[in-house]
Each structure stands twice: as C-alpha cells, then as structure tokens.
Amino acid sequence: MAIGVRLVVALVLALVAGSAWGQSSPTVGAILTLLRAGGYVIVVRHGATHADQADTDPLNLDNVAKQRQLNDKGRADAEAVGNAFKAAGVPIGKSISSRFYRAVETARLIGGKEPEPTLEVSEGGLVVSPNENNRRAQAFRAIVAAPPAAGTNTLVVSHKPNILDAFGKDWFEIREGEAAIFRPDGKGSYTLIARVPIDQWATVKK
Q: Is 28 inside a domain boundary?
C-alpha cells in the first residue's frame, strides 16, 4: 500500500473511532479513497420507489409487474452513485441483491453489472416464518463478514426490514438509497466505517 493511501486509511480510521463517540464522521471523499483500495462491503437500501405501489404477489418474486418499482429519482440517484464510484476508481467485485426487482435494478445501476439475486437479503415480511426471517438476518451478517476478493469491494442491495433485522435498531431510520460501509476483519466480524445518504455521493468534487 502506498504511503499516501496508508495515511488516508489511518486518518479515516481515526475519524471513525471518533464518530463512535459522537464526533465527526469521515468525508465522502475519504470514504471513496478507502473504497478504491478494496476490502469493504457496501450495503445499500434500494433506491427511491413509487409510494403508491405495493408488492401484491410476494410469494412469486418472478412477478415483477406486481412489485413496487424504482421511480425516476431512484434510478437517477443509483446511476449517480455508480458514476461516482467509476470516476473514483472504486472496484466492485461481487454484487449481491434481493430478488425484488427494485433491489436488482439499484445494484445494476450502482455496480455496473448484473447482481446475484438471493433470498438471503430479500424482504420476507409476513409471508415467511419468523425463523426464516431470523435465518436471513444471520445469512446477511455472514455476507457482510466475508472479506471481498483482493482489490475489490462487495456490493449488497437489500431492504430496510432486512438491514434492521441484521444490524439493529440504529438502522430504523435508514432511507431509500442510503449506504452503510463495513470492513470485514477476516475473523467472522466487521466494523461499520460510515453511513452515506444517497445524495451525498454527488457532493464529491471532481
């Protein structure tokens, strides 16, 4: 790792430690610098959706027409994040999404590739058992704890209920499109580095 990158890593980790005690958080520019080196898991709640739509056929996840969809803002915001990652040289390796199309589409626009849809991060709601929801929460945490392939970051796009179940009450107010950046420690655990509302990526100066 170059000396400059090591200094940025040290600075951001210090800021992260400070944020745990209610102090300043790392800037989006510093976060992008970290992501450029790889080794992080980027968890995103799917982008903005149509508030007048609902999932009316939740037992059939292939029935996209009966699902709540991204609206134009959701697509534009996700595309803007993808452009910010591309401009900053952020490498996305594995891309994982919920099987709901709004998550698939968000992951595609951010990661620039087709994601791997999986039930492990799909919203279950009332159509699956409490045991299955708990299993998915455990599986979600395992995905975040898995170190990405060398020099890449893992992208995971899911839903508020899944993120809340996996990571706790601090995520109750997570907004559509918001990202949480985690660093796996290679020992089955992970550290939260920062949370970034979707509109903050566009504030980075080119």
A: no
Residue 171 lies in a domain: yes
> What total of structural domains would you count in the chain?
1
> SS3 for the chain, per residue?
CCHHHHHHHHHHHHHHHHHCCCCCCCCHHHHHHHHHCCCCEEEEECCCECCCCCCCCCCCCCCHHHCCCECHHHHHHHHHHHHHHHHHCCCEEEEEECCCHHHHHHHHHHHCCCCEECHHHCCCHHHCCHHHHHHHHHHHHHHHHCCCCCCCEEEEEECHHHHHHHHCHHHCCCCCCCEEEEEECCCCCEEEEEEECHHHHHHCCC
In a domain, 7, yes or no: no
**What is the per-residue pLDDT across 7-21, written as a single tens digit (0 to 9) for each?**
344 444 444 444 443
Which domain, by its residues, includes 113? Answer: 40-203
Nearest alpha-carbon partner for 191 in 67, 9, 20, 4? 20
- What's the whole-model pTM score? 0.87
Q: What is the CATH number of the domain that holds 139?
A: 3.40.50.1240
The 10s digit of each residue's pLDDT in 71-125 is 999 999 999 999 999 999 999 999 999 999 999 999 999 999 999 999 999 999 8
**25 domain-assigned:** no
